[in-house]
Amino acid sequence: MNKPSAIVIGAGIVGLATARALAIRGYQVTIFERNEKAVGASIRNFGMVWPIGQPTGPLFERAMLSRNIWKQICIEAGIWHDEVGSLHLAYRQDELQVLEEYAAINQKHRDCALLTPAQAHEKSGAINPNGLKGALWSGTEMILESRVAIGQVADYLKEKFDVSFYWNTAISQVAQNQVKSGIKSWQADEIYICSGSEFETLYPEIFQSIGITKCKLQMMRLEAQSGNFRIGPSLCGSLSLIHYPGFQAAPSLPSLKKRYEVEYAEYLKWGIHVMAAQNHIGEITIGDSHEYGLVHDPFDRDFINQMILTYLKTFTAFKDSRIIQTWNGTYPKMTGGETEVIMEVEPGITIINGLGGNGMTLSFGLCEQVIHSKLE
Asked: Do residues 223 and 300 share a domain?
């Protein structure tokens, strides 16, 4: 008996997660990627699997499911990963109050706790000690080197599940269980469009009608820290508290946001909140900013990078701070508050898109849930 077949368009994290969910259910999967490797938003990020950013409930459960799948793949494929957790640092009383409220609400549901300054320093020697009032510890966060890991996941799927890859193959048309690239065509029982904002090319009318935009972010990387210095958990300044929906449960968050709207108006204008994560060779990824619109300036804005670096120094004390790389990335994001778009455009053809900046955190969980619901 022949296996059911599926085509997935896009070899970024959403495409790989979809392929995995199909392959473990017995599908023969073929992935088409327009570039010779994944070069989009899936590799231009912190490499953070970040459950703390999700509100308690279905999205947090999805993030934890995704984390578990990530860990399983990393172990089986020998992919570097570091279950370092995270620290959100407070230097003002209203910031500490938000962290206190968050811990009180969530400590029964998550691995999290409020730490004293001394306890925070035990977790990380890279914290700026001046004025630190406390920190929120979360043990659920995991770091990967995404620019390497995404390609390694593709290799894993090929080896373990016999997933086929067509690189440098841009799909120009999809209809009736068939995809085309120029004059070539392929057929499958199911087709999944997982190509990020590039699905605009295949379905321009749908793209324009569903309330989706694009977000440009700017990021940097610092050189490997001398003496094999490790920062421990990923570190976050308190601007992150108003960026991630997971913190909206704290009653005093609106008050904190009002202060930031006055004191950090320029930061909020450019969507800046600052985080730091360290890779396997000691380099530290920092960022980021958020500019929304359908078309973006392809060039980095130096003043944004300088704002990020200035705020970074308020809560970190790294041994080495030389910048070795800067870059930007773009990802699709829903404008109406939706966390993703799942749409069957015709029988057997499904779009999975619009995860915003949560692809590394949610994709494996989301695609597992979508394919399970669709096929079982």
From this structure: yes
Q: Indicate whether 289 belongs to any domain.
A: yes
Count other Cβ atoms within 10 Å, centred on residue 209.
Answer: 9
Greatest pairwise CA separation for the chain in angstroms = 68
With tokens 């279905």, the residue in question is: 58
Q: Pairing between strand 190-193 and 349-353?
A: parallel
- Total of domains in the chain: 2
| Phi, psi dihedral angles at 252 (to 5 degrees) | -90, 5
What pLDDT is attached to residue 199?
85
Residue 363 lies in a domain: yes
Tell me: do 160 and 40 sit in the same domain: yes
Under 8 Å CB-to-CB from 69, ≥6 apart: which residues?
A: 17, 20, 364, 365, 368
- The β-bridge partners of 330 are 216
Residue 223's domain spans which residues? 121-129+212-334
Backbone angles phi, psi at 341, to 5 degrees: -125, 125
Tokens of 270: 């450019």
**pLDDT over threshold 80, residue 376:** no
Sequence-separated (6 or more) residues with CB below 8 Å from residue 254: none
CA-CA distance, 238 to 100, in Å (whole number)? Answer: 13
SS3 content of the chain, % helix, strand, coil (to 5): 40, 25, 35
Nearest Cα residue to 192 out of 302, 348, 51 = 348
According to DSSP, the residues that pair with 354 across neighbouring strands are none
Same domain, 40 and 154: yes
**Residue 56 maps to a domain:** no
What number of other Cβ atoms are within 10 A of residue 217's Cβ?
22
Sort 339 into a burial class: Cβ within 10 Å, 0-12 / 13-18 / 19+. middle
Stretch 50-73: mean pLDDT:
97
Give the whole-angstrom CA distance, residue 304 versus residue 217. 10
Q: Are 236 and 87 in contact (CB under 8 A)?
A: yes
Whether 1 shows a pLDDT value over 80: the answer reads: no
pLDDT band at 197 (very low <50, low <70, confident <90, very high): confident
* 229 plus 303 within the same structural domain: yes
**Residues 99-130: pLDDT tens digits?**
999 999 999 999 999 999 999 999 999 999 99
Mean of all residue pLDDT scores within the chain: 96
Residues 247 and 368 in one domain: no
Q: Give the span between the Cα atoms of 319 and 310, in whole angstroms.
A: 16
